[in-house]
Every structure is written in C-alpha cells, then in structure tokens.
Amino acid sequence: MATEKPTTDEKPEGQTDKKTSDEKPQDFATWMAAQDEQTQKLYEEHTGGLKSALDSERETRRTLEKKLREAASAAEEGSEARAKLEEAATAAETAGAQADFYESAHTAGVADLRLAWVAVQEDDRLRDSSGRADFARLKEKHPSLFADAKKLPAGHAGAGASQDAPKQSINEAIRAAARQ
C-alpha cells in the first residue's frame, strides 16, 4: 500500500512561483541588485578571483606584445626574423583587441559576437577615433546582431510559420487528398 504525501500550498523558504508568460524576463544585473547582501557578497567573492585572473592575463599579453615589438626593432631591418616577430606582435595585439571587444560586446547585448567582430573589422565607420567598436553605430547598421532583435516565431512542420496556421497535420492532408 502506497502512502500519500500530504499536499500543502506552502513553499519551502526561498522558493517562488514561476514567472507568468506575460512577465518580461529581467537581466542579471537587475536580479543581482535585488538579492540580499550575503548573496551579493558571495557572488563578489566568487567572481573576484576570476576578474583578477583576467586582468593578470591581459597584463601578461600586453607585456609579451611589447617584448615582441622590442625584439623586432632589434632585429636586422628587412630580415625574415624581424618580419616574423612583427607578425607575432600583431597577432598578439589582434587577439587582445578581440578579447576586449568580446567582453564589451557581451555587455552591449550583442548576440552574435563573432559576426559582430568581423563587421567591425571590415567597416572603419563602426569604430571610434581610438579604434574601439562603436556599438551604437553597429546596432544602427546591423540590428540583427543584437539580442533584442525581433525573433521570428517558432514554426511547426506542415503548419507554416504562422501561429494562425491550420491545425491539420500533413498526414491528414494526404489522407483527405487520397479520398477525393
């Protein structure tokens, strides 16, 4: 004989109702600001190490790029070694710029980071005077790259993309045509 668990309307502490479909989802910063002080402190402790590691990696990359440029300038003018050192320094600089771009683009709400990077590299008008991406211009010229771009509704096979499509399956349509 199975024992039944009593049902109650009480929820365990901290558990909330699921969002209704009318409720607009909030972003992480808004959600985090609404959390209690202890949760915010735990989050800061957790991400603090990650942020310092990221800053350390960036500084290491800049130092390496500087050393490569110094070695290239010390190499003989026009030599193959100098060309390779300059190429390596340029690759390090580009990788750093791309990492910085990805971080800024994510904050700006870009949904397709790689495609946005290519767009900014191809079009000088999408960069400001310091060479950094101008996300306002990027959004103006390529709005589909951003997360808030209008998404097409999900379609279903045989029903088209419209939610108002007939609720008849392809099998029913075939059978109906065969009966005629």
Write structural notes for this entry.
- With 180 residues, this protein is an all-alpha fold.
- Among the domains are: 37-108; 109-149, no CATH class.
- 56% of the residues lie in helices and 0% in strands.
- The chain contains 6 helices and no strands.
- α2 packs antiparallel against α3 (80-108) and α3 (80-108) packs across α4 (113-122).
- The longest helix has 38 residues, at 37-74.
- The protein is extended and about 85 Å long.
- The N and C termini lie far apart (56 Å).
- Mean pLDDT is 78; it is low at 17-21.
- Helix segment tally: 6
Task: Please count the beta strands (DSSP E, at least 2 residues each).
Answer: 0
Order of helices and strands: HHHHHH
Radius of gyration: 27 Å
Task: State the end-to-end distance.
Answer: 56 Å
Beta content:
under 5%
Shape: extended
What ranges have pLDDT less than 50 throughout 5 or more consecutive residues? Answer: 17-21
Chain-averaged pLDDT: 78
Work out the helicity level: 55-70%
Biggest sheet character: none
State the secondary-structure class.
mainly alpha
